[in-house]
Fold each of these.
Amino acid sequence: MENTPLTHNANDSSGDDPERGHFRTRFGMVVSFIGCMVGAGNIWRFPRIAANNSGDTGALQFLLVWFMFLFLWSIPMLVIEYAVGRYCKCSPVMYFQRLVGPYTVWMGAWIAAVSTAIGCYYSVLCSWCVYYLYFCIAHDLPDNEAESDAVFRSFAEESHWVLIPQFVVVALCGVTILWGVKTIERVNSVIVPTFLVLLVFTFIWSLTLPYASNGIAFLFSPDWGRLATPQLWIDAASQNAFDTGAGWGLMASYAAFMTRDNAIIKCSLAIPLGNNLLSLMSGMTTFATVFSVETSAGLNQTEIVQILQSSGPANTGLTFIWMPILYSTIKGGKVLAIVFFLALSLALFSTEIAILELSLKSIEDLGVKRKYVVAPLCCVVFLIGIGSALRIDYLVNQDLVWSYALLLSGIAFIFSVYRYGSDKFRSELINNYSTSDWYLPKLWEWMVKFVAPLEVSLLLVWFAVDQVVSNNEWYQIDGDNLMSCIVQWTAVLIMIIIFNIIYIRYFSTSLPTPPYDNMMTDLSTEASGSIQMYDGNSSKMASE
């Protein structure tokens, strides 16, 4: 098995862990990480959020802010996640216990809780995809907005049948994570390439439609006045986190399957950049299609923008309403629509797998065997997701609350680096531990210690002040407002802090350490003879 830094053997870099497994091929590793990211965030959420933040003349202002946060937020956070996952071989819950101390376990639990909350409504989005797969097989494709809108609403808003595919999705995810990394790698090796090919083809075809250039021109035209709205900025930051997986903890969970020979800095840069490119392609595809169809129908730009911002309840149907219309313009489009929604279903399925894997690993690291966790976990995810399945307005609320919460998860990761020592973290967990990776410069420390915390603090304060000033009833728990976020975040925080207290009192010094979680004597032991780490039997940092 691979010796993690606690039991480092300079001659062993095989990464073979019989208890946990590891990625067998670099291709399987890359597509698994892409599978974590590519899905609803790119295809469903990005076009919707971009449209919602469009002005009268365009959406370029949103794109620029969104892309800026890739470098100011998402990539620095992903470096942390890849590093702690590969180095610690454990979930965020146990990572905080081992590196920072048992009194911060609640921070790791917060990260896992936020991702699990997203997973509860994400399973509903998966079920929508499964339904559209069935619809494309059994029915002719709609060729106009009214017909396609009716198809979406009849299933997503007016029917309880959505619960059946939702249950199937969660159950299949449970079976996959029960079988472990080999299954995850094999599944993603098929899912991801298929989906990417279809996405690229669909993107290219959309650009050939009449008046498609109007949609592309609108997407890349600015409305600078929108930059004065805090909603745009926090939507852009949370969307980039949602796109790339920054703050989810998913990368940390999957990185536990990596070895020291796997290059985490290269992954932290290349995969998010590629992911954002896919989101941009999805946005261009959607905007091009809507402008093509509606311009041909005689609508002007103002009317088309209104449609972009109101496709389905809270604009949730933008992708599902317009993609079938796009495929109806292609000869043989029915077959392509079937393949597309199959690939999209599998892409969302792969992300749901990653979410459940993180939740499962968090419990598994507490000493509970995987086979005893899977069924109860899937039941909880399904039951909590029922609210989002039956009420779209509740799904929209959950999407806003927990996507914004990803920024708080990022702050938790930042705190762990600050507490451990940013320079020490950079050298011991990354530069000195990697065998074939790029060097991580000190600039990253400044980004993590100063820039990232400042930007999130300013965003949340600006958003809160704007909510209070612009809404006299901001204190009411009503839909997608500030108080809705505060109440739900507080409820989760109370539960995980109680868990943290119980953990410290009864379990922190008695739980067995999983065989794959041999934490942490570092490579620096060979160079300096000591390492600062948390001793679970003490309330201070001790030299091992």
Amino acid sequence: MTRGSIVSLGLSNPAFKPQSSDNDGIRDSSPIVQGDGTASIDQLEIEAPGTTEEPTELKASLNLLHAVSLAVGQTIGSGIFVSPNIVVKEVGSVGMSLIIWTLSGILSLCGALTFCELGTMFKRSGGEYQYVKAAYGRLPSFLYLWVCGIIRNGMGCAAISLTFAKYFCDLFLDSESSEFQYYQKLTASLAIVIIVIVNSYSTKFGIYMQNVFTLLKLLALGVLVGMGFYKICADGASNLDNAMEGTVVDIGAWTDAFFASLWSYNGWNCINMMAGEIKNPSKTVPRALVLTNVIMITIYLIANVSYHVILTNEELASNQPIAMLVGAKMLEKHGSTWANIGRGFFGLSVAISTFGALSSSLMGSSRLPFIAAQEGMFPRVIALIQRKNQTPIVGLLFMGVFATIWCWPGDISQLIRYVGFLSWAWWGLCFAAVPGMRLTKPDHPRAFRVFLLFPAIACIFSLYLVVSPFIATPLNCSIWLGVMLVGIPLYYGFVDQEDKCSSWMEIALVKASKVLRADL
């Protein structure tokens, strides 16, 4: 790339500049492709528009085993260490809990197969944003960015961070003490700050850290399952007797339980995101999706059975970290020292692995504002990357700030509920877009065509997950509807009409980039 193809960043540039759906010259850099070192503000550069018409496509090199391994690794996160107690609290029985987990896996499979067709139609980065834009237009796609790109993704990162902090702080503090929540939220906020700094400075370290943390996560889950099998062999499974006893019959409670279990299945759409890198996608992608979801349903059912045979419903529904309770209870017969060792093993393993999941989530979430800025939906400065580090540093900072803010007003279960409600509202629109675009875009290339029964099931279930909260908590849902509608004047005031753009946003964010560079 020659120096003549670079446009200097000037403060007179409009804060929002509508662009085409192609790259329009802004360097499209994956948020996890970075180097070491720092760059001055002069090195935050933008390619001149028109230098390229199509985004570079990655080589199709992944086979079925690669796709399944990546998807399983990405899907297993912090949820299985925090969601089971939320599900039990809401549904009240072992049997209903296992039904919820099974149905959630089936719903995730239907959603994944539906997204598979969309992913082969629109391969540009951005996922649901690109689908909403293609099916419904620019205004709905901006509302998606406003609600999900800022609010939902920030809450999701905050929930993961609070999960990390819950396990970490419980190693040193009594979870029932009055100051525990304060230190939990403070620790969660500091974790976000540390991850933003680390990922802004060096991806090599971030990737190494993530790989190690993934191994710890799988180790903790393996030990949990092993303890469950040992408990069944040694003492039986009396906790599973009368499995449906105590079941709560309440649509609102079931909805919250679904949100909690579906939180653990988050990642079901990751294969669709990498469809362009998979060999023979029309056959490999659906096979990988089915295998991944069967594996995930099996793992989560076994993990939940392990929880239930070791802990009582009362213990599962408590506010204590459930994995730590398992470790302590299984080893307490050998004395308090061994009980503390078991508790500490699970506490440290889950805390460290969740820290890695938070790193991955923050980096992935920063991608959406980055793409939105490329296409003129957000201030263009968010799309800038450091030339030396290849880091979308402003997008990462942008998401880090919102995630930190959401750590303070909410708790984990509340954030998971809100994330679920907002996610499935927009995913439902994406599911409905598949049959819709079969009519409006019949000639659009599709490497995979989903059987329409799957989007129909996903649409019906999404409707239930959106309508049910409106019936149970109409005020909260109305507030979220109002927040979404606020995006309409924002769109027409700052995005739709270029002559109304405000350059002060660009100035403020450029100054923030300078400060961040100096700090790092």
